[in-house]
Each structure stands twice: as structure tokens, then as C-alpha cells.
Amino acid sequence: MVRAAAPGEEDPVARAEKALASISGEFSTWMADECERLDIARRKVRESGLSKATRQELFLSAHDVKGDSGTFGYPAVAPAADSLCRLLEHTPDLSRIPLAIVDQHVDAVRAIVREYARSDIAIIAHALTSKLRQVTDEFLAAENKHRPDYLKAISSPPLAPGEQF
Prior knowledge:
mainly alpha, Four Helix Bundle (Hemerythrin (Met), subunit A), 69% helix, 0% strand, disordered C terminus
């Protein structure tokens, strides 16, 4: 049930915005922590290979980066993390994923976060993440060519406007 603020009571939305503003100084530290967690997961993949366990850890880390990026003020990071999630989720044989593609995704996430203060970061991030998405989509198309119905489902355009397969 939604109710109006009582007379003299602070507006709940304004109160929430104040609370968010009071912790927003922590966002860059939290995003750096998420990037470090992603890098640790990547290093485990490099050391042990892509098993179900290392894939899960890398996927969850990338998924968290994707989910937290907007809240933490780094929305340009989300497409790179999303592309890595797609790669890990839709490749039928994990052993066929080139580790170079995993490295490119993780390095892109880290670079975008590191350089976020640049005035041209949106342009750079878009160019970088568009290429990552293209490489990922080409790889997924090749790996799933024997599953045309599945390929059609993962090839459908994203729901977000402005993004293309």
C-alpha cells in the first residue's frame, strides 16, 4: 500500500535519495571490488580451466558487475559484463571457449571502470563493447550452428533499445 507522507513527515523518496547520496562515495570502491572479484575468477579459469565450478564463479561475478554497474554509476560497463555472461551461458562446450575472449571481456570491464572519469568514456566503451558483442555473437553462432532453434532464441535482438545483435 502506498500512502502520502504525513504532514511534517519527510517524503520517503527524498529520504531514500538522501540515504543513497550518503553512501555514493563508496560506489567507486565497491565497483573496484567487483572488478577485482571478476579478475580473481578469470585467474582461476586460467589456472584450472573452464569447469562447471570456475564457469559459475566467473559468470556470477560478471553478472554482479552487470547488475551493480548502473547503481554504482558505471552503466557503460554493463554491456561488456553482459557479453561475457552470454558467452558463458550459451556455449554448449566450455572447453571450446578461447581464453583470449574471456581475457578481453574482463580486461574491458576493468579498463572501462579504471578510465570512467574520461570525458570520452561513453564513446570508447561503446566501441569496445560493440566489438566484444560482435565477437561473442559470431562465436556463439558457430558453436550453436547444430542447434538452429536454440541459436534463433539467443540471436533475437536484445530488449534494450539501441542495442543490436
